[in-house]
Amino acid sequence: MNEIVLKTDNLTKQYGKSNAVDHVNLTIEEGDIYGFIGENGAGKTTFMRMICGLIFPTSGNIELFGKREKKEVTDARRNIGSMIEHPAIYPNMSALSNLEVQKRYLSLDISKEEEIELLKLVGLPADERKKAGRFSMGMKQRLGIAMALLGDPKFLILDEPTVGLDPVGVVELRHLLGKIHKEKKITMLISSHNLSELEKLSNKYGIMHKGKLLKEFASEEMKMECEKKSCDLETFLIEIIKSAGERI
Which residue, of 8, 41, 123, 181, is most buried by count of CB atoms within 10 Å of its CB? Predict the structure, then answer.
């Protein structure tokens, strides 16, 4: 069994009388590309924000890299790179300058040469003249991922990285994430509505619905179930959600 990167124990976030995340028990192991699936409002982003320390849980526990104590979890978050909801870039700065600002904010000891190599990895030029505000959506997403990779994290959390991309951009991003996973041996948690692309990347899935984690399953298990029922991933997931809806 690989090292457990993330494990949650009844993790819950309550707003008013509603649970945006409802007693979620989730496990991600080293090397996983974990596909996080669910409709809008299912609780995926709220869950990711809690893992990154952007909001506090109402109850439950987070274990990161085997650490459970509050201070240890806070320290362990230094090994996380994230892009939540949309890339947080400065539109009037170049890609390289954006990395420089992020580096200073995180107090990282990284050379300009390393920043340029990171831009090359994600397929962006280190051109100081072109401002990020003039980038295509795909380039902005690539820059957001480069910023998340600063500091060489062990765990990458990406919230809807394909949103707003055209079909070519979606395929290019999928190839980029596969390349990063292979070259950097990095564990990933990726939420996406693009199930066909997620299916080509992920080895494990979790299905969220109304704040609850309905099911976790490996890609091999999903393929076997789909073959039995002669259905695709989307149909398989809809069946699980409909079945759960009758119980919730």
Answer: 8
Token pair of 190 as six digits: 């990726």
Q: Which of the residue ranges 142-146, 210-214, 225-229 would you say has the lowest mean pLDDT?
A: 225-229
60: buried, middle or exposed (CB in 10 Å: 19+, 13-18, 0-12)?
Answer: middle
> Taking the chain, what is the end-to-end CA distance rounded to the nearest angstrom?
33
DSSP 8-state symbol, 2: P
Indicate the angle between helix axes 112-121 and 137-149, nearest 10 degrees: 130
Tokens describing residue 115: 């920043």
Q: CA-to-CA distance for 19 and 7, rounded, in angstroms?
A: 19
Asked if 152 and 80 touch (Cβ cutoff 8 Å), the reply is no
Please, are residues 120 and 102 in contact by the beta-carbon 8 Å criterion? no
Residue 124: CB partners within 8 Å, gap ≥ 6? Answer: 95, 139, 142, 143, 146
Give the separation between CA 190 and CA 157, rounded to whole angstroms.
6
> Is the CB of residue 81 less than 8 Å from the CB of residue 157?
yes
Q: What is the mean pLDDT of residues 48-71?
A: 95
* Residue 248 pLDDT > 50: no
For residue 162, give the 3-state DSSP assignment: coil
Q: Give the model confidence (pLDDT) of 27-49 as tens digits.
A: 999 999 999 988 888 899 999 99
Give the closest residue to 36 by CA, choosing from 89, 86, 84, 87.
84
- The answer to whether domain 4-245 has CATH 3.40.50.300 is yes
| Pick from 145, 179, 161: nearest CA to 44 | 161
- Sign of the Cα pseudo-torsion (74, 105, 190, 57, in order): positive
